What does this fold into?
Amino acid sequence: MSEISFETEPSRYRHLRLEADADRARIILKVDENGGLRPDYLLKLNSYDLGVDIEIADAVNRLRFEHPGVSVVTLTSGLSDVFCAGANIFMLAGSDHSFKVNFCKYTNETRLAMEEASALSGQRYVAALNGVCSGGGYELALACDEIWLVDDRRSAVSLPEIPYLGVLPGTGGLTRLVDKRKVRRDIADVFVTLAEGVRGERALAWDLVDALIPRSRFAEAVEQRVDKLVAARDSGRAARRGIVLDLLNPAARENEIRYRHLTLTLDRARRLAELRIDGPAAVEPIPADAAQLGADWYPLRLFRELDDALLRLRFNHPEIGLVAVRSTGSLDRVLALDHQLHAHRDDYFVKEVLLLMRRALKRMDLTAKSFFALIDDESCFGGFLLETALAADRIYMKSSGKTAIATSVLNGGALPMPNGLSRLATRFLARPEHAARLASEASRFDAERAMAAGLVTAAPDELDWDDEIRLAIDERLSLSPDALTGMEASLRFAGPETMETKIFGRLSSWQNWIFQRPNAVGPRGALKLYGRPESPQFDWHRT
Amino acid sequence: MSNEIPNNVNLESDQQLRRALAGWHPHYLEWWREVGPEGFDASRVYLRTAISVSAEGWANYGYVRMQDYRWGIFLAPEVMDRRIGFGDHYGEPVWQQVPGDHRKELRRIIVTQADTEPASVEQNRLLGKTAPSLYDLRNIFQLNCEEGRHLWAMVYLLHRYFGRDGREEADELLYRRSGNPDHPRILNAFNAPVRDWLDYFCFSMFSDRDGKYQLAALAESAFDPLSRTTRFMLTEEAFHMFVGESGIQRIAARTADVMLQKDRDDLFELGVIPLGVLQKYINYWYTEALDLFGGEDSSNAATYFAAGLKGRFQEDDYPEHLALDQTYELRKPDGSIEKIPMRRAMNAVLRDAYVEDCHRGLRRWNRELEHRKIDARLYLPAVCFNRKVGAFAGLPCDPWGKILRREEFERRRSEWLPTEEDRARVAAVMKPVYEPGRIANWIAPPAKGIGGKPGLEFEYVQFN
It folds into this structure.
């Protein structure tokens, strides 16, 4: 497959339509059958592949920035009698393992972004199921606040992955069923093994949907219910002015992707990438209407770039094993900007920027590459930018007398990890008061103090620096990539479980295990044989 | 209850089945009162009732009021040592119980088939008011009662073999309604209105014939009770085909006679249906029926065949029964050929047998025109015309399979498919005739009657 681009905009959508009014919006799925990323499958019945999900993710993100007055987003389908048939099975069956894993991870991130929009941006999501809703289609619905199902005696919601494909509903379906909707475990057990799903009154009684809507008045009844939800929201929202998110359009060359504030350099032979962040060139005052800063505002632009770079690393550069994270620029300016972000955090636009930073940093936490942050004389890791170092598996800081990092109040919980804790709190799980003090005192650290405070892994001096770093990188890259993925995922998420950590944890343990097993992907495996004339044959031993 | 319900399934000793039917039967009668034939509750109809599966038993004629019709449950006699005739289980003994791993597929197949039976009763409910003769009135009622019995046959399977789910599905079959915007029937052709007798004959010719092919494919099933049920249904289905095919034939004959006698200007003015309008109805109903076969390339069809649930038409006639390593060649309107693995093309294979069968009917109709030295001929449109399901769905093809620009197709649609004006004019000629010995102007009398009685002179329906 050629390289995947994660950038799009509504005028380029092939699979959905985004309709936004002042206070409400609709995402209407109408997947172009012939618009798959690969030619070996057709996207029938609103089934989706990564290309479709990229459009959904784009719409969810744009709604927050471009249509901030919207308080209810209705997700529905432009096909009659079909909402969504879920992830395309032929696409999955024809994908290699790493693509499948990254695909599931990405779709999960998109679903979580919808939930975050609801919880923190006041944009509630409603799934208006106008027809059959199965597998990933129902998982998409589960990510919404409410699920309304057409009551036509035909349309069912279902999670048929286990009976049909021998794999799990991989986009948080099982977890959301019992954790979010709090469906009883035995009812959930029956539901997810029932290939044909559940419709009508029973779906309602089992809490699989929140309302039933008659078929003949579907559009009208949905609109009336949306009216009610909109009326219950903060009326001040409507006055918010949106901004336009232009395309990043990085300059991509053989071994380099250059964004405005970030450069990704690839050393394919060494399986090493360098992600270099350029600090802000200037810090302008924040106007009363902060949205006037627009898409060019440094932190917004930078973290959109970071997000895009991480996705390209995941999908387009699977061979890259280690990413060195560097920064260059003025620490003072970073901290001035950091101060502004905190001071204006209640402005809707600044808040959206902080939330976008939070999502991009989580994307980094969840990326299956080793990250080493390298802090040298040019670096400007402070406050929100320090998070990109704290997200790394190791932090090396040159002990030269000219290096410095700084903590800020934003490190104290504004940018939490999937486990709900700040990166500092996770790092110092045994010493929560230390983590809290580091954030609240907001001080600068040279290498020696940083070492003492536990903020960095090692602080080689100038003479040793090059060798130490080279050795650390070479050694890391010699280790088994699978073991590293498992190790990093285990070490990064200390502390409590959240629905988010459960979703990703189970994806990477159970689903990825099942995706490798002959019962799913062997020559007679259920996933491989789906839609084929032969029936699967299982190895019946339980593990 | 078992005394009233003719059956050969040991109803009297089957507790579970009796319980299920006791709950369902009153709802069925309610359903019949609500959406069965309207306006003839008091009439006595000369009907055929099956009281056993023997040659003497399945065709008993006598006058009955329709709500007193003895709907029964019959399975064709068991074939000793019957073996699975196709698919991955080829040669193994057939199943007397539903295997757990095919429960959902079998249930879906049975529910989909079952749903068409009450649907056609609902679609026909007003037609008695415009019947062209007592003979035709009796026939439509016969079909309605038998569709009702076919529903019973399918409900028997749901009740007997599918537990609580089966009972719920059986209830839903009485709840969905043809054309209802909130809870329509499952297949779209069964939600299309049947507004006049021309619709009805076309429906019986084409849609019921799809039913015949579906039942024939299920008669091959490894699930023996399904096979035996559908085999008995097929004996009744033959008459339904006859009603449709001979009805169109009689219309063509009548129109041809009038064309020979009179000026050909406006046949509607002369009280008959122009061949061009008949052709448009054929185009519409034939292509609706083609959609009923489902997609030409279907993973469900492959699963059904592999598992032994649904075979081909007269599976025994095929040289081998695994259908692996073979391909089906689907001819596209642009002349290209798409190769589909044979098992996935089973819908298309079944449809091809159906198309061939339809052509036999077409030849009989055209013979009426040939005899009378009329040049015009009826035809069946190309399989890619007016399709909503499968490989040809939405293609702007003319009835001869030529792809047009969409604007041209839309502009010329009224040349090929019935318009509101056509329908209004057809309705205008359809005046009811309820006296023995007489028949409406737009249709020729039947060649012979029913149950040894004369075609027109006999009082098939007695109004009280």
